[in-house]
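#random but structural
TW: two for the price of one
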Amino acid sequence: MSRERPNPFYFLLLLTSLVFVLTALAYAVVPVLEEKAKEAGDIPPPSPFRDSLRSDGWKWLLYEVGAMIVVGLASMALDRWRRYREETEKEREGKDQG
């Protein structure tokens, strides 16, 4: 029995999910940290990343959710295709022997 190669879309799904979680945490936590720093009298230095996160973070999250959906569907499709191929091979072997 040959060992099947792992589904590469699983790794991509894990990676895109991790990026989504990190972006969501940054989108939620960074503004709170900035506000606390301002209340403490310490104005944070300007940051293009924070400015972009503040203005476009919701878009990043939507793109990442879209990527997760696409990669998840691709992963399921590959699993289904492999299972179908395996079943048809077993049927052929059964017909050849019978």
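TW: number two ↓
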Amino acid sequence: MIKYFYLFFCAFFINLGTFAQQDNRICGSEFPPQQWEIEFQRLITEFIREHNNNSTQFTSYSIPVIFHVIHGGQPVGTFPNLVQGQIASQITVLNQDFIGNGLNNGTYPANAFIHWVVNQNLPQANRDSLGRVKIANLNILFCLAEKDTNGNTMPEPGIERINYISRGWLNPASFITPQTLRAYFDGTIKPQSIWNVRKYLNIWISDKNAAVQYTGYSTYPPLSGLPGITIGGSDSTDGIWCYSAALGSSTIFPGGIYASPNVKGRTVTHEAGHYLGLIHIWGDGNCITDHCNDTPPAFTSNIGLPVYPLNPGSCNSPSNSPDGEMFMNFMDYTADPGKYMFTVDQGIRAQIAMLNSPYRNQLGTHGLCTAVIGIYNGGVQELSEEFILYQNYPNPFNPVTGIKFSIPVPSFVKLIVYNVLGSEVEILLNKYLIPGAYEVEWNAGGYSSGVYFYKIIAPDFTEMKKMVLIK
């Protein structure tokens, strides 16, 4: 399913083209070398063989995130010291994008890439019901870390606020080239603030100089057994940097500070793709492969808000005519509202990273947080004017059920399961959430059949409902 690796790689470059109002993300992530990709392809081959070619049965992962907010003493809510709600909205975007249910996914054209599907003879698993390249559910979720490195409950889940002045650091906005900014983060800020990379995805956010035209960069997943390969982050640099005004979603949290109304959180989605081993859709060259059979080649990066089909025939080996380029893929530079998909083959690469990278394969195993899915309906977030707790589904269930609820205002929300005697069985959720609709999954595999109750507790609102586990 994944393209054969090519023998010659194009030199790494950063496109410093049009960048109006930060609408078009330009990424500073390095392009992985040949030896890294060869090893990655070997792991993919093993993965497919071990799964008897049924490699789209993805394992579920939840990645704890810690945001290091780098500021110069500004009060919370004054740029770049972003408020909790804007940061939390980024987690909502990540979860929606990585399960294939993000903003504007409903605008995917009904005839998109159907010729590519046939011409490349893509497996059924890579196709949706209309015969298009499928918008994939990568089965990877993200959550704000609830515990710090010492096991203490964090007052602001997933947020560490760092005053660079009190640390004796320079203002990140004083660096006027991408190279010097990255060197300063990798050499000074990251090593002195990073949390255990085997437990947390570290994301640093800060201001930047206007001359620095990219808005984010990420380290690729390191792979063991590759001496001399430095593309993956070290235990002092692994993670993502993002420009503060490109973080979060102006749709989900309109009260934030954004570079433009087009900021919808896709800078971090893009960089999280790199963090999980995905390559730019154009292969950082002209019509170079990204090693995914279900992504047509692109001549170069795209910006703005293109219309399908875009540039049919721009690449010839293989030809992307008549469907053109996949500008709506998260691994392009299209403006945030114009992208809304990962593909199945990209999902396989992400699963390989989570399974094999020594800085990825322990994430989510330390009980640091619980992932919650923010729900979109037709590309518009469901907003309620009141608190609502819905009946779980399925009910009765065995052993997994989903519990949905809606909140109208930013709130700390607790969701607890009780047995028929009224004893607390499990706390499913205890965190700050922004307004919206959410779903939490309960796996009752370790419990006996019977009647259980789930209760939501929020400021000025509590409600309880019954559910039945039948094994």
